[in-house]
Amino acid sequence: MANKAKPHVLVLGGNFAGLGAAQEIRKYAGDSVDITLIDRKPYLLYVPNIPAEVFENRNPQRTMTMDILGPLDDDNVTFIQGDVKAIDVESRRVDYVPNERPGSAPTSLGYDYLVVALGNRLAFDRIEGFAEHGHTLTDTTYGEALRRYLHEDYKGGPVAIGSARFHQGDGANGLSPYPGGSIPSAEAACEGPPVEAMLACATWLSQQGMGGPEKITAFTPAAMIAEDAGEEVVNKLLEIASGMGFNYINKTQDIKRITADGIEFANGKSVEAELKIIFPDWVAHDFLRGLPISDSEGFVVTDLLMRNPKHPEVLAAGDVAAVTVPKLGAIGHQQTEIVGKQIAKDMGRISAGEADAPLQPVVYCIGDMGANKAFYIRSNSWYGGDYQILKMGHVPYLLKMQYKNLFYRSKGKMPPWGLDAAKLMVERLFVA
Ligand SMILES: Cc1cc2nc3c(=O)[nH]c(=O)nc-3n(C[C@H](O)[C@H](O)[C@H](O)COP(=O)(O)OP(=O)(O)OC[C@H]3O[C@@H](n4cnc5c(N)ncnc54)[C@H](O)[C@@H]3O)c2cc1C
Q1: Segment 217-244, tens digit of pLDDT
Q2: How many of the other CB atoms lie within 10 Å of CB of 157?
Q3: How many angstroms is it from 119 CA to the middle of ligand 1?
Q4: What is the CATH number of the domain that holds 320?
């Protein structure tokens, strides 16, 4: 447990952002701090490859988790398995309940620095009819249920794939990550996955001899699906998709209800579907709402150095941060390095010049399309940046699979050359 002589950094959450933040803090701050990490589970859920596992008929429960105890040990980070219940930023304490066995006594732990990396609630519980009639790909339990449904129950009827409305807070208003740019308002939390699911599902249908894109309707609450990828990229994607025969509905406003026969939308329209693959609202944890560090919807407010303006000893990374729009692991990954450097700066381990490079978010997304192909998007234009790149083919697919293998092998410590090499391979060498 924490050594009193050293500042104590408490990291909440141990998935991409939490594990990454703990590793980056150790990398830059060295032994100047004690680090404790709390998560309700001792493994990382490798969410991005769940769709590929499901459509390639592998049980994601067997392949999409990585132990975090070994990686945390390597960096001398104390792990506590527990449910975080409350944060008291004035007295710098966190309440949690150890959760390996029911009945554990509520406990609290103090900190000098707090890194909030708790992700969000994926609010399927707010979608009427989801439990009875919906499917999704957001975790391995739901992914395995969909895999079984496809292979055991699906009768070949129409498919609808899309998102519920995202309710973004006001916590990133006024931030300008690129000259003249902003953190935009999103109407869907993360639309790479629905685009991925529609392409992969079409390939799966044709492989089964059950049809193809014409059976699938993609829908979005926004004016344009996956608008974070940049207008040029989305227009290109939509042109390709409509050429293939996909159906498309935009401006649904929200999902009102899911029934056995289809989906009813808040704008009064509906779509018939046997299979409904849904991505919900990403909602802040209840205990974050109303805190001095939180925005109007409970997301943690930070500046572009990932520090809360009122409580600079509180930092955030990943989906929980108000500035993370859309909710993408790749953006969380960029933030963890900033978090590590900020704490190292306070410890006198690195200079302000080295530490204070503000976040410049980049949408970086590789989505499975089935048949060993994937699409690759690298874009910053939504935030006021100047590039938007779309590539499709076998090389991005190879990269998606290799990225996961490398992530597991390096225990989450992706070598810096990983992304650069990926960029070079996909954008210059192999894909037209
Ligand atoms: C199908 C799908 C595909 C995706 N593909 C991509 C992709 O290709 N590229 C990309 O960049 N992003 C992708 N994303 C988004 C990506 O998965 C998320 O952005 C990423 O997981 C966020 O990481 P995080 O660590 O911030 O939060 P999370 O992954 O949500 O982790 C939060 C952690 O906090 C823990 N936790 C939560 N509440 C508590 C509590 N009260 N007490 C204790 N512990 C708690 C959880 O157990 C978890 O370990 C995809 C998402 C989906 C759904």
Answers
A1: 999 999 999 999 999 999 998 899 889 9
A2: 14
A3: 5
A4: 3.50.50.60
